[in-house]
Specification:
The chain is 25% helix and 34% strand. The protein is α+β, with helices and mostly antiparallel strands.
Length: 104
């Protein structure tokens, strides 16, 4: 009876662990930290153009933003920022999430 109880306990704990991982949502996000010079702000399209100096995303890039007005005062200035992706490549424009250490 004791070994049957141990088997049941092991199966029960395994089932709980599997269910926990199966139904939990991952809160981890990939973010890439970059530096660059703000070249243009398109308020209508909510797009900021940055000449990125970081090697992982080098060159003139376009990023989505929620509030373009936060970028007009830093036009032509070098800034540090984080995007919501781990790469700049792909058809979908990354979104700037953190600017100069502050969430935007």
């Amino acid at each position: 009876m004791n070994s049957c109880g141990n088997v049941f306990r092991a199966l029960f704990l395994t089932a709980i662990i599997i269910l926990t991982f199966a139904f939990s949502k991952s809160s981890a996000t990939d973010e890439l930290s970059l530096r660059g010079i703000v070249k243009a702000v398109d308020s209508k399209a909510k797009i900021v153009t940055v000449d990125v100096k970081s090697e992982s995303c080098l060159g003139l890039r376009h990023f989505k933003v929620d509030d373009p007005s936060k970028f007009t005062s830093i036009l032509a200035k070098e800034v540090s920022f984080q995007i919501d992706k781990s790469t700049c490549k792909g058809k979908v424009k990354p979104k700037i999430m953190i600017l100069e250490g502050r969430k935007i």
